[in-house]
Amino acid sequence: MIRISAYQNQKFNYPIYIISNKQDLVSCVEENIGDFSTTVIFVDSFIKGLDSTNQILKIFSDVLNSLNRRILVCHLEPGKQSKNLNTIEFLANWLLKNNVQRDSLFISIGGGVIGDLIGFLSSIYFRGVSLAHIPTNLISMTDSAIGGKTAVNTSGHVNTLGTYKHPNFTLIYLDFLSSLPQRDFVAGFAEIIKISIIKNQGLFELIQNLSRKNFSNQIELKELESILATSIKYKLDFTDGDIQENNKRLFLNIGHTFGHAIESIQDLNTEEYYRHGEAVSLGLISCISLSDKIFKTHNLTLIKELLSTFNLPTRIPEEYIVKLGLSREVLLDKLVETAMNDKKGKGKKLTIILLNDFYNPVLFKTDEKSIIKEAFKEIL
């Protein structure tokens, strides 16, 4: 078991556990369950039949029953179609009907959508209840469950409404990764690759070494633990002292202005064409392409090759354009407009993160749509 202390010098410090066996799982639950009137566990319905999920639910049930505490379980539909205010209102009414009070603990078991949704709910239900995360895919383990961000979508825009809410603890159970579809597993590496190119402490080399092997979610446990722990520590470094994105945390958004635009133009009421990590991969290509043009660097080929090794997209196919029912020119204009309205923009200028060179991210402000259009052209 690896234990990482998040934000040690802050009032909201909490432990993050990386666990690979059942006995450590039991110990962690017993240590962190706390004295709550009710523990409400929200489970991604996509994983409700997995052995890992059943193990965790049984452990929580056994521990809480031995303490004579109440436990409720609620299954939630995954996907961005659930990540909205309608779901929040439905859940709030369900909690009220079950007499769930403020001295409760909400636990999310699932990917980024469930974590964001329950994080947001926990931050506003009776003005805030305690929270714990059990992320179940790679992208939520290394990114969305770390750093305290919560959010729901509005029509046509991703993560429009959100808060900052830190958990009491985060529990990463590696057994979940062995049951992930390969596509969902590799999508998580986009966020790990993203953070590896903005901080020079060996993570990029670890990923390069991994990419040279026959990559799959069956990689050696110790190797995966090392990559996860390093990536999490990187994110904590960037967020510590800048929780609300006024300075260094902004660098974590590299590729995301472009990636969020790709996500946002998808129909959020249907199954997404691109996973979040896949959209980030495309966003990184746009970002590095623009960075090479502005700073006269030559990093695009290396990043393309690395992303391709992990079967991550580096170009939008014709199939996607046809699915959207748009011409290439209209799609390009729509992507630019969506990016220019990104929440990281201030005033009339858009703030994006570019790479002056490896491990040297910079803030770049522009109000020129032509610059953003050139970046998107790289993936179209």
Please give a structural write-up.
This protein has 380 residues and is an alpha/beta fold. The protein is 45% helix and 17% strand. The strands form three sheets. Strands 1-2-9-6-5-3-4 form a seven-stranded mixed beta sheet, with helices on both faces. A hairpin with a 2-residue loop joins strand 10 (350-357) and strand 11. Helix 3 (85-97) crosses helix 4 (112-124), helix 5 runs parallel beside helix 7 and helix 11 (276-295) packs across helix 15. The longest helix has 20 residues, at 276-295. The chain is globular and about 65 Å long. The model has no long low-confidence stretch (mean pLDDT 92).
Concise account of the structure shown:
The chain is α/β, with parallel strands linked by helices and 380 residues long.
Essential attributes:
380 residues, alpha/beta, Rossmann fold, Dehydroquinate synthase-like, alpha domain, 2 domains, seven-stranded mixed beta sheet, two-stranded antiparallel sheet, 11 strands
Radius of gyration, CA atoms, in whole angstroms: 20 Å
> What is the CATH class name of the largest domain?
Alpha Beta
Number of helices: 15
What fraction of residues sit in β-strands? 15-25%
Helical fraction equals 40-55%
Q: N-to-C terminal Cα separation, in Å?
A: 44 Å
Order of helices and strands: EEHEHEHEHEHEEEHHHHHHHHHEEH
Poorly predicted spans: none
- Strand segment tally: 11
| Mean of residue pLDDT values | 92
CATH architecture identity of the largest domain: 3-Layer(aba) Sandwich
Q: Order the strands across the largest sheet as they lie in space.
A: 1-2-9-6-5-3-4
Query: What is the fold-level CATH name, i.e. the topology of the largest domain?
Result: Rossmann fold
Shape: globular
How many distinct folded domains?
A: 2
Give me the secondary-structure category. alpha/beta
Largest sheet: 7 strands, mixed
